[in-house]
Structures are given as C-alpha cells and as structure tokens.
Amino acid sequence: MFTSPSVRVRRRPTAQQSRAEVSSSDSAAPKQTLKRSINASTMQNGSLQKAAALPANSAAFGQQRGHDDTDYSAAQSSSHKKQAVEPKRPVWLAPFAQRVQEPRVADVISEPEKPSTLQHKKVSEDEPIFGASIASIASAASGRTGLVAEDVNPARGTEADTLQTTDHILLRGDKHAVFDVAAFPEAVRRQLGSIDPESVPISAGLSSESSFAFVATPTTCLVWSYDSASSVMGGVYRLAMPDPDDATDFAAPLVALVSVGEVQSDVGVLACSATGQLRFWDRVAFGLGGTDRFHSRDLDLPDASDRCVQISEAFAGLFVVATIKGYLFQVSLQDVQGNVELTAHCLSRSAGARTGMLSRMSSLLGGSQFVAAAADASDALVSIAGGGRTEIRHSRELYVLTRQRLAKWVVSRAHPERFLFSMDIVTALTQAAAQRLGMDVDVGVYDIATTRSGDVYVLTGLQGLRSGGREQLAVCILRSSRVSTEPDVLGMWPLRYAPDAELSQCGPNCPRLVLPEGGPGMFVILRTAVIALMVPTVGASFEEAISFRAEDSILGISTAPRFPYVQHESSESSLVLTCAGTGVLQVCIEVGKIVSAVTSAGVDTSADADDSEIRTNTAAWPSLGTRIGKAPRASSPEREYQTQIEQAVFFRFGNDHNPLLFTIKSRATGVDPALETAALRVSQSILDNTSHFIVDRLDLGSHLNERLRRTRAVMQFIADSGLVSKISRETRVQLCAHAEKLAAAVALWTYQNDVWAAKRGAAAQLLDNLVASFLESAGLQTRDSLRMFFRQHVAAIGDVLVFMQRNLAALCRALDDSESGRRDSQLVSYEANHVVVGALQAAFVFRFQNATLYDIDGSSESNGAFERWTEHPAIADLLVQRLEGSYRLCREISGQHCASVYERIIATTLPSDEDPSDASRSLDIFDDGVSISHPSLPDAAEPDSSEEARMRLISDDPYVSSLALLRETIDQVGPLANLCFRVFVDRITHLQATGSSEAHALVRRYDAARPRYLLCLVPLARASVAFRLAEEYHDLASLVTLVFTTERSNAAIYLRKYVERFGRDFADTLFAYYEKRQAWASLLNAQDSSFDAWLKEYVEKRAEYDPHGPVAQIGWIHDVKMNDFNAAATRLARAGRDSVEVDQARTMLSLSKLAFVAAECQDGNLGKAIDEAHARLEDALEMCEVQENLSQYLTAVMRTNRNHAAEISWRRRDDVSDKKAVLDAAMLTTTPEIRHERPALYVVYNELVRCIWNGRMLSVEDLVDALTFPDDMPATDSVLASCSADDAEQCNALIRERYSLAIDILSRASISLSEQTREAALKTIWRRVFLNDDWNAIRKRLGGNVPDSELRAELARTHLYAVLESCLATRELAHPDWYLLPADVFAAADLDYLVSARLAPRFASESDVGSGWQPLTSTTAPALNKDYGEEDTRLRAAIKCGLDSYYAEILRTVSDQVNRCRQSADGDASDMDAASSSASTEALDVEDEDVRMESD
User: Which of 112, 462, 619, 1300 is least buried, going by the fewest C-beta atoms within 10 A?
Assistant: First the structure.
C-alpha cells in the first residue's frame, strides 16, 4: 500500500508512526475507517494551527537578509540568513494508502445505496428502452425477491476524505501514484523565475531522509526544508557556491545534502565547483556561524581542462567526486574521531598514485599504470554508482561507467581503495543486443545502478529499432559470479516508452536510472517524464510512463538512501523529485500489490510485448528469472486507454496546477475500437457511480455536478489530444448521452430540492413516489429511493419518465372520484410536466452547448445514423400525451375559473379535431380564407395587461390558486411543444439515415402533430410562442396560417419579413396556401415585385407536376404580366397539345398564336423561331379540326340512322346512352366482315369513337386508326343533309381523303414521334389503303383483252388511285419518303410494339392500371395478333392478284398526270411573265417619247 511521504521520514520517537501501525490501518474494519478519518481531520486542524504559527516562529529564529533575487553576475561572499516563507499546506499523517485506496465511508443515510444482486421483477409494459436499462440495476439472484438492497461495493469516503484526496494526489493508478509533497517557497520561485534555464545551468535535488531540498546555480545554492512538520525552521537558506569565477562555464553545479545524525530538522551541504573547489557546511539551520561558516578544499585536478561532473555518497560522511576525464576523488567529511574535517584524495591502483581512472583501465590492457593519460576524445565519464558490500569491513563497491567501458572499484573509510577490473561494456552490450533482437544495432550507455542483490543495471539506448530515427531505451542486466570478475550480460529489457526529445550522455537531456533501496522498484528519469518499472527478476510486467509539462521539467531527484540498505524489502518503492514549476513531488510504486498479483497468477513465462517495432529472440538467454531477457508484456489496449483517460479525467481537470502532462495517442488508422471501448467504460462508470475515483458526498447536488463535469471531461480530454476522429459518431453520441442523463438528473434533483424547500403538498412528492415504485418493480427497496436512484441508477432516467407516464393516467383516474381528488389530479399533471420538461430540457441544453465538443453538430452522411436515448418512440409518445393532457387541463381549469380562455378554446377546432355533434365544427383550421378568419379560430392574440393582472391578483402559487395553476400550465405547453418537435425531428433524421421503413409514417405523424400543437397555443394566448416555434422548426405552412389568422391587419408586414428571412421557401408555401384555397386573384396579383420570379418558377414546377391542373392553365397569365409573351405562347402551346379536350386545346392553341404574334412584335429577331412555332401550331390546330370533323360526321350518321333531327347532347361521362351511341356509331361506319374478321381491333375502334364522342384529344396513332380502320363511311347527301354547307363540304373531304389526310397528319407530327412509331403508323395506313380495294375482282375485269383506255379507267376508279392522287397532287407529299410498296407494309415486323406497348393496355381495367399490374393478359395479345395476321393474309392475297403491278402502274399514271399539270401551270406562268415584261417595255418607250417631245 502507498505510504505518505510524511510517515516515511524519520521523526522523533514521540511523533513517529510505525509501519506496523500503517499496515494495521490498511486492514482495519470499515467502522474504524470513519474513526481514522475523524482523527485525520483532527490532525489536519493541528497542522493548520502549526502552519499558521510558522511565520512568527521564523521571525523569532532569523531575519531576512534582503537578497530575495539572486544576482548571477557576481557571487555573493557575504552570508545570507534564512528567508521567511509563506506557510505551506499541511501534510496529513494518514498513510497515502488510506487516502487513495481504502474503502470510503458511505453518506450518513438510512439505507445502503449500491446496486444489489436481486431478482428483477417483471413489470408489464416496462421493458428497458434506454441504454443502461433497469435490467442492469438489479441482477438476478436465486431465491430472493423484493428484499432490501445490500451494498456490494466498498463503503465510500466522507467529504473530508474527498478534500484529502483532491489536495495531494496528482495521479493514481492501480499500482502507482504521484503525490504533491510541497510547493516551492516564494524565494525559490523568484530565483527560478529570474534565470533562463537555457543559458544558466541549474541543479536540484533533495534528501528524503532529512526532508531538505536544494536548487543551485554556479553562484548560489538555496536550501530549505520541504516538510514543515519535521523542521522547526521553515526558512530558505542561501549559500554561496565555491569558485564563482567558473560560472561562465556551462556546467551544472555539484551539490549533495548530508544528513546530520538523527536530527531531521537540520542538514549539511557539500558543494563542488566544476574546477574542483569543495565547500562543506556541516549544519545549515542550526550552525553557530550560519551560512558563512563552512569548510573548503581544492581537489587539485591533474588536468586544468578537466571538469567535475558528478558527486555520489558512498557511506555516511564519505563521497566520491568524478570528473569528465575519469578521475575519481574520495571526499571524507569526518576524521577518525568523528569530528568535522574535509579531506580528499584521488583514487589510484596503489597508495600514493594519482592518475586518471581511464589510464588505469588502459593499463590492464598492457599500458603503464602510473602514467596520468587523459581520456581521448571518444571516451568520457557517464555515471558512477555505489554497489554492494564487500568482504572488507566498511567497504563498498563503486561502478564507473564511461562511454565505452565499465570499471569496478572498492572504496572504504578505513582501508585504501582497490581497483578490480575494467571491461568493454559497449561491445558486450552490442553483442547481447544482436543476440537478443536478431539484428545489429548501435548501443549507447546512459546510466548505471545496482540492486541490493548485487546485480548491475545499465540504461542503454538502441538506435535503429524504431521508425523515424527515434532511440529505443532498454535496461540491461549484468551479473558476476565473483566480486572481482567481469559481469556477464544476463538480459536486455526494452522499454515501451519512446522518448520524443533527443537524448544525450550528459547534461539535462541525459536519462537517469534509479533503484530506490536497491529495488525492486526502478525509475527511469527523463527531462519531462518518469518511467516507473519493476526489476525483471520479480517477474511482473509493470511499466508506467508519467509525463510532465514542458514548463514543469524535472530538475532533480532524491539522493540514494544511506548505505547499507535495510534488510527487508518495503511494500512500496518511491522516488521524490523536484519540478521546475511546481515543487516537490513523490512517485510511488506499490511493490507489494504487484508481487502478490504475480504470485497469485503463477509464474508468467509467456511471450513478449506485442511491439511490432522490436523483434524478440530469447532462446539463448538463461532463465534465472521469470522474465529475464524479455520485454514486459503489454496490457490490453483498452486497459491502457482506460487508465490514461481516468487519470486525466480525475486528476487533470479541475486542477490547473497539476504539473503532469496527460495525453493519449493512437496509432490506429481511422476509428480505434480500443479507444472507444475505454472511453465508454470510463464514462459509464461515472454515470453508474461505480468508479473507484468517485467519492460520495452527503450533498447529492454537488455529487451529481461533479459526476457531470467528470463525464464531460472524458470527451474534453480526447478532444484536447486530437483524437476525435479516432472515435466514431456512434461512440460520441453515447458519450454525450451519458452526460445528458447526468445533466437531467442535476435538473431534477435541483427542482426536487426547491419543492422540498417550499413544503408543498403530497402532489409535490410525485417524483419521489414514482422512483420508489420504479425501483420496487425492479426488486430494489429502500427508505430513500430518490437518493439511491440519483446516486446509482441515473442511466435509467428515460425509463423513469416513461414509467411515470404509463402510471400517471391510472393515478389521475383514481383521484378524479372526489372534488379534492380532482384538484390533486390537476396538480399531479402539473408536476409531471415539470419533471418531463426539467429532465429533457436539461439534456437538450447540454447537447446543444457541447455539440462542437462532441462533434455532433454538423451535417454529414452519417448524421442521425445512431439512435439517442431521447429519440426513442416512447419519449415521443410521452411528450404527445403530455401536450394533449396539458391542453385538456387548461380547458378544464379555464371552464371553471377563466371564461376568456375557455371561450377561445371551445371556439377553436384544431387539426385532427372532429366534433360529431356539430357538423359545422368539423372544419379544419386550415380551411379559413385568405383575408378573413374562420369561426373555428377566433382572434386570439396575446392577452391584455388587465387580464394578466386579474390572473395574478389572488396568488402566484399554483398549489393555492387555480388561476396560477392555469397560467403555469399554459406556460408549460410551449416548452413541451418544443421538446416534442425536437424529438420528432431527431427520430425522423435517425430513421431516414438508417433507411427504415418507419420514416415515412413518422413524417406523416409529425406533419399532423406539429401544426396541431403550434396552433393550440393561439387560444391559450401564446401566439408569439407559436410564431417562434414555427420559425425554429421551419413550419412555413403554420407561419402563413398564423399570419392570416392572428395578424390579419399586419399580414403584409409579416409576409415581407418572412420572405426576407426564409426566401423562396416561404414564397412557395404562400403560393401553395393560395392555391389550396383557390385564391387565384391573390396568387397572381402579388404586389411585391420580388414574388414575380418565384411565382414563375412555382408555376413551372406545378405545371410540370400537374400539366392539366389549374396552375398550369393560368400560368400564362403571369407570363403576360411579366411581358414574357414568348414564354406565354410556349406555355399555351404546350397546354394545348397536352389538353385532354379538343375545345380546350383549340382555345389554348389559338391564344398561343396570338401570343407568338405579340412576341414577334416585341422582338423582331424571332422571325425564324416564330415561323416554326406557327407551323407547329397550324399542325396542332389541324388535328383539332380533323377531330371536330370526325365528331360532326359521327353525329350526322347518328341523326340519320336514328330517324330524328334533335340535337344529340355532348356528354362528359359514360352513361348508358353514351355507350349505346358509341356502339351505334362504330357499327354504322364498319361492315360486318371487318367486325367479324378483326374483332379485337374493332374493340379498339369503339374506344376511339368513345373518345371522339366525349370530345377527348386523340394521339396521332389513335387518330390514324380512327381514320383508316372503318371501311364503310358513307358520304351521301342523306347523311350530311342536317349539316350546314361548310360542314358538309368538310365532312365530304374528310371521308374522301381520310387516308391521305392520315398520311399528311403523320408527316406533320413526325417530328415529335419516335422512328418506330412513325414507321408502324405509316405501314398501317398503306396496308389498309391496299386492302380497301377488291384486287381479285379488278384482276378478273382486266384479265381478258382489255384496251388501255379501259385499263386506265378501271384503275382510276380504285381507292389507291384516289389516295395517290391526293398525296401527290393535292398534299404534295414527298416521294418516296411517305410512300410504301405492298411488300413493305406487313404488320408482322411491328407486332411487339403494336400489341404489347400500344393496344393491349387499353384492355386493362382501371383498378389494374392503378395497381401497376401489367395489363397484357393471355387473351388480349393473341386476339390482337390474330387480327393483324388477318390483315397480312389479305395483303398477301392482294399481292398474288397483281397488286404490285397495279400499284406501279397507278403511281406512274398519277405521277405523269401531276407532272403535266405542273408543266402546264409553269408555262402559263411564264407566258404571263413575258406579257408583263412586254407591256412594261412599251410603257417605258412611250415615256421616253414624251420626254423627248417635251424637250423639243
């Protein structure tokens, strides 16, 4: 267990606490824990009193000399008395183990409040729905149901313990911790702040035995006691360093603190300059001469260029000073009688020899031992370290490490020194590294340390293992069988930590290796990091890196403890160090816990750490230890991430003075699953209050706020580390949800405290009672359910809200039986609204305020892909039910106490409301007019001040006044509506992102609920709230409705404001509002010119969506308003072509011609385009004319055959009379043969006749079929007798030239037809032209000796002749584009198109077409194929009868006749031109003669 630095310091017997007492305190019962906490608080008060009296004591013992700031330019020879310092924080005497890890005392409450292992009772309709559900609250346990929950976790500390923990613990892990021991005194802070570490060398250190520390520069050394409880004097002592003239040499001064016997309140100081000047103060605090009294001596360095670089204590009063060139000097502080005496001599192999150590190393290899050869440029001293005991009394081993070699000495206070050996350490380590790693690497040495067992540990650097050229640190283990023999390399232990800064073998960037008390704890100290380790022989894979901020770099560490070490190993290993910006810190390793974990787990001989950058090969290494030659096994990435996050969350945030650097790194590409898991674990443990870092408090509000801050700190730490991209959106949403639930818990607990403070009635206990019922349903029973819930079960806060709503209706029904109960029922509903609004509003506020931190505010492809706890359908249902209940409650209360509000409510019919008792009330609120209000929505603006005053007259307490309850409930409707809309929006976004089929239904529900709850605010006199919500949720339709129903007088102002804010979207909504109410005048008569462009686009969009709708019909009016006649003409032409009725098409086409004329007058450059448009309009008008003529012809046929002259009325519906007329018209225009031979095509013809009869427009193909299919269309005078002369002539021309007219129509419309459609229609025309004559009879009549004149006469009487003549002569259709041979008009090649794509759909019923069913049935297609096959059969028979030769002859005859006519016409035209020219010439001659006569 961790032990306090205060306890570990040697104290007077009266104030010292033994380790046995510490151990017993660790295993004390929980009851004793509270007692110890009280004792610790009492001791804290005593320490505070002593600290308060400290300045007076300091003033009594000494005075400040007046030199607070050190002048580095000149050394101060005068002595400086101690400086008074401010009282620093007291250090509690309780062990750190108690302050860090002991069980904490629970709050003083009646029942334990930890999750229990109970059987979960199943509750109907209460399935867990939110994250950590109620199922996680109570686990299953056999045979126990409904019992009181038992605490399964250790008790937690009181608030006093919390203060202790947060004051001194800077970092706490499972097996290590960092404590803040003491801050720098003010004088030391000023000293450090006045110098630049980059230009002035600084050294620092401390003695954990005497609790003194120092900070030294080449001119001054400041010494102070960092433990005020162990020293009567609390000042800072300023010592003048020896030989200040060498201050220009950038070398850190050498200072060692010397313990003064058993006196802890004083310390001695040994200082050495770089040039070898020694100065020793035997007592600093109680010295009779003060700081001016010291002993000095000169080492007399053999080489003037040499510099002293290290000082180390070998025994009490015996030190060793080493130079950069390898000279070692033994410095003694006492004589043989124990008196203070400063002596020094240089170590040598024999008595009297004073040569360099490196020279003696070379002598072992054959050189002279007495020649003082200086080290060459490639070698220099690195470090010295004291070893173990030897067989010589009062002697100790001394290891000397240079850049290339390792030497071993024996030093003693009573005997001469002894040189043992020197070996090439770099070569040995290089060979070991090659064998260990399987590759050649460059090895450098940095430091050396020894264990109590005699093993030697060398800190090395391996170059070439890691990417980027970074050096890999490793610890090498050396062991020798005898004292005088060279050690063998036993193993190499690579460290996982990779230093970022470049390392060096000297200076501040040189890493240090420390083994306190000779192990088993081990520390590697860098400039801004400490790596805590365990020696490999323990068998534990423990390595923790503790980083420091750059401004808090490590200045010095504690000196080695007095040799010899204690015989037993301590349960913890600690290192005390000083930081530049903070002061004195302590790093502890809990050795006992690590060793016990290894012992309980057994011997671990598994593989090395999974470091991909270090290859391992341990087969050649001896197995003396369980992990010799192996790197420590890395813990799981999740565990490492979790530890790092916990340290930062609980020790960085809230403590700005923490010198440690909390950071986290991830090497994963993309999302890091391990980091996600760790972050969720930490956040969930805070949410569930199961983290061992959390300390419970009696003040539950402060406890909840602390948990909320810690939960937010999880994401803050990840964001500060730049790892937001390593966490998926789903994980970020979950982390935010944990904090949202804690924010909701804070809001509810705050409100409940206000309720308790107001001492209201039983209805105010709604939350408390519901939480108790909720926990009881899960098998948890306690007398303080509410506190238990907020401490341990905040994750189920969503379930509590839903549970409340599910049980609220039954509670209200039970209360409604009496008058007083009805009042309580109203208050319960009011309190339920407070609970819902308080919880959800706090959650959403936290989400919106921290959206940037959690990176969930931007829109992306994954936005809304993960369901939040507030998006659950049960929450949406809950809010809808609360809104409905609140509106009913307002109606109920106002009906008894406020007539003005009640009248507005009953006069309003909201969307989805229906009153079966009054049909007039079933109108929707959207059915109001544009400029008048509908009776279902009265003018309900904000209430005047007098009404509000009347509602406040009685009381503002809703528990007392019904009017106050009404006002409070009305004020709750707005926040409820806001929350409801937000939940709907988030839920819809989630469903749409996941592609759920429920999204469409939820959108419809939201579109119905949103206007309802917006407009319900109007009769409640909260129209301004409705406006704000409609603006926020972009409900533009409701905004338009609110404008025309509540702000009619200012409608134009509101519309202009919203148009400026929402732009085109609002304009489109306004246009749709006008269109729905058929307010065409308001739609087209918009006074604002900015509407014109938007209205034009809206008309185009609506016309495209519904080309036959009213907007498409009137869109051209807006074009005319904008003087865009070309667009108006185009729109009219398109509307005419798309019209389904003939008369409408003719009207639109005629107006289009007029608009084109206006466009041509407006822009004269449109000549060619206007001509093309005119041509297309003429073609379209001709189609209309053909259909009108067909309709007149069929009407005339019906009049003639029905034998009456009455007008046949045009109908737009298919009644019985219409169907009979259609059948009669189709039968009268066809022969029985064609009806029998082609029945399917006859049915198609009937459909075409019905369309003509109803005035419907036919397509080009349908019109071709209507003209060419009938074979009996009489053109007698009796048929046309009832028609006018013009109509009769048009009908005769139609009947006479219907085939050529069909070809002409097809040629005009070919530009808009596909090639397949055009070819199929043209074949159909010519095929039926050929079949209209009896070629077999013609062949018989022309089979004998027939003269040519009779042949020509017979062929001239055929229908083919008439068609060709009309096409060539009258219509002048180009040849051969529109003329086909008999062999080219068979229908077989076009059957797929004619049957499947065009005609078969006409046989489908309307229900089949609406359902999307393919209308081609098994009976339709064969029938149509058979009919077209019949036409092909008849055509083949005609061809056998000589149709080809007859067609060629007729075509030649007609062509010759047409050519002769054209030549004759051309001759007549030329004669007329010649006559005109001659007349002109004669006229000119006469004029010339007249001119001459006049001249004469």
Answer: 619
Q: Element (H or E) spanning 425, and its range? A: helix 425-437
Position 723 scores a pLDDT of 92
Question: Using 50, 70 and 90 to split pLDDT, how confident is the model at 40?
Answer: very low
State the Cα–Cα distance between residues 452 and 387, nearest whole angstrom: 8
Strand partners, 521: 534
Confidence of residue 880 (pLDDT cuts 50, 70, 90): very high
Predicted TM-score (pTM) above 0.70: no
Residue 1293: pLDDT band with limits 50, 70, 90: low
Least confident of 139-148, 296-305, 802-811, 996-1005: 139-148
**Phi, psi angles (nearest 5°) of residue 136:** -80, -10
Asked if residue 1330 lies in contact with residue 1443, where contact means CB atoms within 8 angstroms, the answer is yes
Long-range contacts made by residues 1240-1244, C-beta under 8 angstroms, separation at least 24?
1240/1399, 1240/1420, 1240/1423, 1240/1424, 1240/1426, 1240/1427, 1241/1269, 1241/1424, 1241/1427, 1241/1428, 1242/1269, 1243/1403, 1244/1269, 1244/1399, 1244/1402
Question: The tokens 């290590």 sit on which residue?
Answer: 176
Phi, psi of 790 (to 5 degrees): -70, -20
Which strands sit side by side in the sheet containing 295-298, from one edge to the other? 254-260, 263-272, 277-281, 295-298
Q: How far is CA 708 from the centre of its chain?
A: 20
Place of tokens 């302590």: 586
Provide the H-helix boundaries in 101-226. 159-168, 186-193
Buried b (16+ CB within 10 A) or exposed e, 415-437: ebbbbbbbbebbebbbebbebbb
Distance CA 1242, CA 1369 (A): 32
The residue to which tokens 């929350």 are assigned? 979
Non-local (6+) Cβ contacts of 1129 within 8 A are 1152, 1153, 1154, 1155, 1156, 1158, 1159, 1173
- Give the integer Cα–Cα distance in Å for 458 and 48: 45
What lies within 8 Å, CB to CB, of 875 at 6+ separation is: 798, 801, 802, 840, 869, 983
Strand order in 212-216's β-sheet? 203-207, 212-216, 220-225, 236-240
Alpha carbon distances (Å) from 513 to 448, 522, 530, 539: 6, 7, 10, 19
Helix or strand holding residue 314 (H, E):
strand 308-315
* Start-to-end CA span in the chain (Å): 151
Looking at the DSSP bridge assignments, the partners of residue 459 are 447, 475
Phi, psi for 145 (deg, rounded to 5):
-140, 140
Percent of the chain predicted with pLDDT > 70: 70
Edge-to-edge order in the sheet of strand 573-579: 169-172, 176-183, 583-589, 573-579, 554-557
The model's pLDDT over 1027-1070, given as tens digits with 9 standing for 90+, comes to 999 999 999 999 998 998 887 778 888 888 888 888 888 888 88
Q: DSSP assignment of 1099-1140, as one string?
A: HHHHHHH-TTSHHHHHHHHHHHHTT-HHHHHHHHHHHHHH-S
| Alpha helices in 652-796, H assignment, sequence order | 673-687, 700-720, 729-758, 766-777, 785-792
Closest to 292 measured CA to CA, from 65, 78, 68: 78
- C-alpha to C-alpha distance for 1198 and 1021, rounded to whole angstroms: 69
The residue that leads in pLDDT, 1414 or 1349, is: 1349
Sign of the CA dihedral running 186, 191, 196, 199: negative
Question: String of b and e for 1318-1357 (b: at least 16 CB within 10 Å)?
Answer: bbbbbbbbbbbbbbebebeebbeeeeeeeeeeeeeeebee
- AA letter at 585: L
The rounded distance, in Å, linking the Cα atoms of 424 and 403 is 10
**Tokens coding 1364:** 């060709």
Q: How many CB atoms lie within 10 A of CB 1188?
A: 17
Backbone angles phi, psi at 1293, to 5 degrees: -65, -40
Q: At residue 1406, what is the residue type?
A: E
